[in-house]
Amino acid sequence: MKTTFKNIIRTIALTGSIVAVTSCPVYSAEYVSVTKDGVNVRTGPSTSNPVYMELFEGYPLKVVDKKGDWFKVTDFENDSGWVYSPLLEKRDNVIVNASSRANMRSGPSTGNAVVATLERGVVLELLERQGKWVEVRHASGTQGWIYAPLVWP
What are the domain boundaries of the chain? Predict the structure, then answer.
C-alpha cells in the first residue's frame, strides 16, 4: 500500500498509534531569546570562532540550525551566527521592526490612545495576539498594543 498522509491519519485513527514519518520536513520555526546581557554571537559553533556581534538580554532570535550545544540563529535584520545554547531560552519576546518608530496603544486599534512611541530595535514581552495586533509589555512596565506587522517575529 502506498503511504500517503491520508493513510497515516487513517492508521492513527484506527489503531491509536502515532506514526513517525522521518522524511517530512519541520515547518514550524523555533524562536528563542537571549538570557543575559553580553551574549556573543560567533561566526562558527565554537568559542575559538571570532565574535560577530554581542546581544542583550531578551533579544529574540530564530533558530535555523543546530550543531552540538550550539544554535545557528538569525535576527530581525537577517544577521546570523552561532550562540551557545545554554545562553538562550524559550521566551515570547518580540522586537520593534518598524522602519523608524511604532506606536504602542491602549487597545488593539488605531482609534485607541498612544501610550508610548517605540524606536526600531526595542525588545518587548509578548502577552497576547489578537488578529493583526499584539499586546506587549516593555521592561519598564509600560503595557499596550502594537500593530503586529511592526514587530518581529
Answer: 30-91, 94-152
As to burial, measured by CB atoms within 10 angstroms (0-12 exposed, 13-18 middle, 19+ buried), residue 116 is middle
Domain 94-152 has CATH 1.10.10.10: no
93-120 per-position pLDDT tens digit: 999 999 989 999 999 999 999 999 999 9
Helices (H) and strands (E) in the chain, counts: 1, 14
Q: 30-91: CATH homologous superfamily?
A: SH3 Domains (2.30.30.40)
**Number of Cβ atoms within 10 Å of the Cβ of 14:** 8
pLDDT tens sequence across 123-152: 999 999 999 999 999 999 999 999 999 999
Other CB atoms within a 10 A radius of the CB of residue 93 amount to 21
Helix ranges, 59-128 (H): none
d(CA 111, CA 108): 8
